[in-house]
Structure to design on (281 residues):
């Protein structure tokens, strides 16, 4: 005789199968659309971007072939440069507020526009952003022998750390604002019901990469960081092998770090980098 299962067991198996199918479909959807969930660019034409730049007294920064890389001031005074690598949303022109902060400390700021952001074409991915930032670093070093520092904001901190690990002799120091240690951990925090450590393609392992850089690192942590979490920045500092200092702004959220030229934490962090890089005061 063929034994038949009770109807309630058959029904349970069916519900479990349906549930597993729905969950697998949700994982597949997250895998296929994850870059849309990670990168939030503002897009515009190059003429529109140039018009915006003129309004805030910036000019385009171009590569050797005349293609747009980003934005900077028209006057260049031979100062040490800081290449600004912005976060995952908006565009580089939206980070012009960093320039007065850098200039007050005696640096020239240069804003890199990522591929697929603003007027630039290209793929938005970990590999493409890091490769583009490395090319931008080489472009700055071709211009002059003045030191180049990297300022990485949020997602840009991941770009900065990987570039510094790959080009350690070309990077005088790192200034990391609201950084993360590992993107897989950040993603798992926001999507605890998904196996992000398995399906995340752009992994952004800053904690692993920072071991390849022995230069000075300044880290600015937002105490109420609701996006990556303040603990991520502290963990990254603990994994740093070179000289490192951390400034924590207790009441700041992820996007609310104070941007006041000549004031803490930026003035102190930039002074630390200047001194530890061998530039002097």
């Amino acid at each position: 005789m063929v034994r038949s299962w009770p109807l309630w067991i058959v029904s349970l198996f069916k519900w479990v199968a349906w549930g597993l199918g729905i969950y697998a479909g949700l994982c597949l959807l997250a895998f296929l659309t994850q870059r849309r969930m990670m990168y939030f660019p503002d897009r515009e034409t190059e003429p529109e971007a140039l018009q915006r730049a003129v309004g805030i007294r910036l000019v385009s920064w171009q590569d050797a072939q005349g293609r747009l890389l980003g934005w900077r001031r028209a006057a260049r005074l031979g100062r040490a440069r800081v290449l600004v690598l912005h976060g995952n949303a908006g565009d580089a022109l939206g980070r012009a507020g960093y320039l007065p902060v850098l200039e007050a400390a005696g640096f020239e700021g240069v804003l890199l526009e990522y591929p697929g952001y603003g007027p630039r074409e290209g793929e938005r991915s970990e590999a493409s952003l890091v490769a583009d930032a490395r090319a931008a670093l080489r472009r700055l070093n071709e211009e002059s022998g003045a030191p180049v520092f990297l300022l990485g904001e949020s997602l840009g901190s991941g770009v900065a750390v990987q570039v510094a690990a790959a080009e350690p002799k070309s990077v005088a120091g790192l200034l990391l604002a609201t950084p993360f240690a590992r993107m897989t951990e950040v993603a798992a925090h926001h999507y605890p019901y998904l196996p992000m450590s398995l399906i995340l393609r752009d992994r952004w392992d800053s904690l692993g990469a920072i071991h390849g850089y022995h230069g000075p690192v300044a880290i600015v942590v937002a105490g109420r960081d609701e996006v990556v979490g303040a603990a991520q920045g502290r963990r990254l500092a603990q994994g740093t092998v070179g000289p490192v200092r951390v400034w924590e702004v207790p009441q700041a959220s992820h996007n609310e770090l104070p941007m006041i030229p000549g004031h803490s934490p930026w003035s102190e962090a930039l002074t630390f980098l200047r001194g530890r890089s061998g530039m002097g005061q």
